[in-house]
Specification:
By secondary structure, the protein is α/β, with parallel strands linked by helices. The protein is built from eleven helices and nine strands. Helix content is 50%, strand content 13%.
Length: 294
């Protein structure tokens, strides 16, 4: 039975669990026997995901950038499930557009959710992970490995989240807490589909070299990340080719710059290159949230 349910008896917390990769990870975790606490902004979506899960699941609507709200959520998760042994910092938003044409408030909100929200999540749940000698998984991105034009806030925040997790790993190794970083390329989520509806972003991505231009089904990506959770892996690659991206990481800025120069010349005058605002339903929820706990 333990082989069939490798996470039986464990409690996992997943942020950004209302839709997309977070919801798929929650499904995969429950299938492997874990009790799951779903955290996110969209209460109706969280309720729907929790209701369809076949195992033990509960949800709490909360803004990951709100320290007090996250502390309250952590206390309620522990009261409901006991101290968690897995925390997945998955919550993320994206906004497209050239840096100079992006609303500064929108740019800042991307960094707040993706980077500051990860730090707030860690601060709220690390006391429990220290007691369970648990595992913290930071969801990063291909954007942490190489730059992506029109996504300056997203790249900056994911690079920062990657380094933050590396520091946590070094600080917590002697205390029994493992820290992993997950790298993934474009997953077929509502957020990525919203990005593809923007002509400039769609065309820039189409000119990326294969397989970086490909969109991947979200459910298999979530399963690969959860297998990394089972192993308490230091690094999880949703697509195996991302390992090669690490090897050539130092060369990527120059390659991307030259390819983007040609792409922007083609796009000039015929595509909208202004800022998009936060993209997708999750982005709209993050835009309207002032930091809350319901």
């Amino acid at each position: 039975m333990s082989q069939e349910l490798p996470l039986r008896g464990r409690t996992a917390v997943v942020t950004g669990a209302a839709r997309g990769l977070g919801a798929d990870m929650a499904r995969s975790l429950v299938r492997r026997g874990a009790g799951v606490a779903l955290l996110g902004l969209e209460e109706d979506e969280l309720e729907r995901v929790a209701a369809e899960l076949p195992g033990s699941a509960e949800y709490w609507p909360v803004d990951v950038t709100d320290e007090d709200a996250m502390d309250r959520a952590a206390a309620l998760v522990e009261r409901r499930f006991g101290p968690p042994s897995v925390v997945v910092a998955n919550a993320g938003v994206v906004a497209g557009g050239p840096f100079l044409d992006t609303d500064p408030a929108v740019w800042r909100r991307v960094v707040e959710v993706n980077l500051v929200g990860s730090a707030v999540t860690a601060r709220a749940f690390l006391p429990a992970l220290l007691r369970t000698r648990g595992y913290y998984l930071q969801v990063a991105s291909l954007a942490a490995i190489g730059p992506a034009p029109m996504l300056s806030a997203y790249c900056a925040s994911k690079s920062g989240a990657e380094t933050f997790a590396q520091v946590l790993r070094a600080e917590l190794a002697h205390r029994g807490v493992r820290v992993g970083i997950a790298y993934l390329s474009w997953a077929d989520t509502e957020m990525v589909r919203a990005s593809d509806r923007q002509e400039a972003m769609r065309e820039l991505r189409a000119h990326l070299p294969w397989p970086a231009s490909k969109t991947y089904d979200a459910a298999p990506v979530a399963d690969r990340l959860v297998r990394g959770v089972e192993r308490r892996a230091a690094t999880v690659y949703a697509q195996p080719w991302l390992r090669a991206g690490q090897v050539v990481r130092a060369c990527l800025p120059g390659i991307v710059t030259e390819g983007s120069r040609r792409a922007f010349l083609r796009l000039a005058g015929r595509a909208d290159l202004t800022g998009t605002g936060l993209l997708g339903a999750g982005g709209r929820a993050a835009e309207s949230s002032g930091g809350r706990f319901g």
